[in-house]
Amino acid sequence: MPAAPDDVKAPPADAITSPTGLASKVLQAGSGTEKPGPSDTVTVHYSGWTTDGKQFDSSVDRGKTISFGLDQVIKGWTEGLQLMVTGEKRRFWIPGNLAYGENPRPGAPKGMLVFDVELFDIKKAPEPPPVPEDVAAPPADAVKTSSGLASKVLSPGNGSRHPKATDQVEVHYSGWTTDGELFDSSVVRGESIVFPLNRVISGWTEGVQLMVGGEKRRFWIPAELAYGKNPPPGAPAGMLVFDVELLDIL
């Protein structure tokens, strides 16, 4: 078990503090030159302590490195790992608001956390797809249904079968708000998604049934067929634009 750092209680004078309050100090210089981006996957060894010196987690103890996407961890890790190069070892003092907070979920440590992190590898995330030129509104050659759903075929399919609402489908997709903000993308994650067509927003249920296997289509989905104008927390509001590629009908 790695011993608690001597400076576990607070960042020392030679630590560098960012505008967010994240403090860090290089323990071992790296051999690489490239730093990870906010969506890249990294492989690391780490140990973590609370400021009273109690170790709460350590991949070193488990004897196995861990890999994860930088957009899937606490904010202090997302920010901090982007400062590092491969081969580097760095100590972080992560304030509670960049970790699990002062009232964390059960099992998570609270307050400022201290991590020693060694970066072994960086796997670059796929480049995000370009924002469609017609993201603001459906173009003149888009086809509209009676529900208000608009769509345009971007590349024809190689199949003849259309999915039914009760089918499961496998797709790749990217979604934008009409101001061009990418809010979700299986392409960026590098992993297609499978789901039943009757368990998604109405615009998807209707729209994907228009497609055949191998087809790629752009949809302009009005708010009433998406998440509405006052959506639940985390969901985008208003009209949404999706590029969808139908990979398989299951």
UniProtKB/TrEMBL annotation:
Matches recorded under Pfam families: FKBP_C
Organism: Luteolibacter luteus
InterPro entries reported for this sequence: PPIase_dom_sf, PPIase_FKBP_dom
Protein name listed in UniProt: Peptidyl-prolyl cis-trans isomerase
Low complexity composition bias: residue spans: 1-15
Phylogenetic lineage: Bacteria, Pseudomonadati, Verrucomicrobiota, Verrucomicrobiia, Verrucomicrobiales
The keyword Isomerase is annotated on this UniProt entry: yes
Alphabetic keyword roster: Isomerase, Rotamase
All copies of domain PPIase FKBP-type, residue ranges: 39-123, 166-250
EC nos: 5.2.1.8
Record bears the keyword Isomerase: yes
Family in the record: Belongs to the FKBP-type PPIase family.
First-level EC class: isomerase
GO molecular function: peptidyl-prolyl cis-trans isomerase activity
Annotated segments matching region Disordered: 1-21
Catalytic reaction(s) noted: [protein]-peptidylproline (omega=180) = [protein]-peptidylproline (omega=0)
